[in-house]
């Protein structure tokens, strides 16, 4: 028996199905699921086992030859997970070390990672895109949140300036400034 209940498999591609399945109604049925992933829900015990899968609610019997040979379908790769988290701005920082994914929550209440895109309120009341520079200590000892001067990032070598309104870019809604201000990392 190649697969067991709970295994994830990938159904063969459209091209493979077109070239290898000669029964018209079976061809039409299989094409609906070509290339998709499914979970094995039942296995018949025989020399040539038949499988039931979740994608078709166990309606059809599937055979080994209808599943991709490469492996049991894997869960998404670390790169896929990392990319999704970064693209969706899910409130965490992500890094990969030695094949492991390290996910840590952003510290929005207190601080953000340096170079995080943010929106800042300018003295004239306009909002501008900038990059977070971290905390800045004034000569009087006051700690201010700051962004890089003229919107540059840290590696571009420019100084920083204290701001009174810094909102993470993914939390900023230009159509609802009051809601956006709830995410201001600068304490009033």
What spatial form do the alpha-carbon principal axes imply?
elongated
How helical, in percent, are the residues? 10-25%
Oligomeric state? single chain
Report, as a whole number of angstroms, the end-to-end distance: 65 Å
Question: How many strands, what sense, and barrel or not for the largest sheet?
Answer: 5 strands, antiparallel
- The number of domains: 3
Would you report the number of β strands? Answer: 10
Structural overview:
This protein is of the alpha+beta class and 188 residues long. The chain has three domains: 8-66, no CATH class; 76-105, no CATH class; 117-181. Helices cover 16% and strands 28% of the residues. It has four helices and ten strands, in the order E-H-H-E-E-H-E-E-E-E-E-E-E-H. The strands form three sheets. It has a five-stranded antiparallel β-sheet, with no helix packed on it. A three-stranded antiparallel β-sheet has the order 1-2-3, with no helix packed on it. Strand 6 (117-121) and strand 7 (127-137) form a beta hairpin. The termini are far apart. The mean pLDDT is 78.
Topology, please?
Layout: E1 8-10, H1 14-20, H2 24-31, E2 37-43, E3 51-53, H3 78-88, E4 92-97, E5 100-105, E6 117-121, E7 127-137, E8 143-148, E9 160-162, E10 166-168, H4 177-181
Antiparallel strand pairs: 1-2, 2-3, 4-5, 6-7, 6-10, 7-8, 8-9
What descriptors fit this protein?
single chain, 188 residues, alpha+beta, 3 domains, 5-stranded antiparallel beta sheet, 3-stranded antiparallel beta sheet, 4 helices, 10 strands
In short:
The protein has 188 residues and is an alpha+beta fold.
């Amino acid at each position: 028996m190649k697969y067991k209940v709970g295994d994830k498999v990938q159904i063969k591609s459209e091209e493979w199905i077109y070239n290898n399945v000669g029964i018209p109604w079976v061809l039409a049925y299989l094409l609906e699921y070509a290339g998709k992933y499914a979970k094995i829900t039942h296995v018949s015990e025989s020399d040539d086992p038949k499988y039931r899968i979740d994608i078709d609610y166990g309606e059809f019997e599937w055979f080994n030859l209808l599943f991709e040979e490469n492996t049991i379908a894997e869960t998404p790769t670390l790169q896929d997970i990392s990319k999704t988290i970064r693209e969706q701005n899910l409130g965490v920082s992500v890094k990969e070390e030695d094949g492991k994914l390290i996910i840590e929550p952003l510290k929005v209440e207190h601080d953000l990672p340096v170079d995080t895109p943010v929106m800042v309120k300018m003295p004239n009341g306009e909002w501008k895109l900038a990059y977070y520079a971290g905390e800045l200590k004034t000569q009087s000892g006051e700690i201010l949140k700051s962004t890089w001067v003229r919107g540059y990032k840290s590696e571009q070598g420019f100084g920083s300036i204290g701001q009174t309104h810094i909102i993470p870019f993914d939390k900023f809604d230009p159509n609802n400034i009051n809601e956006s201000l709830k995410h201001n990392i600068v304490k009033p």
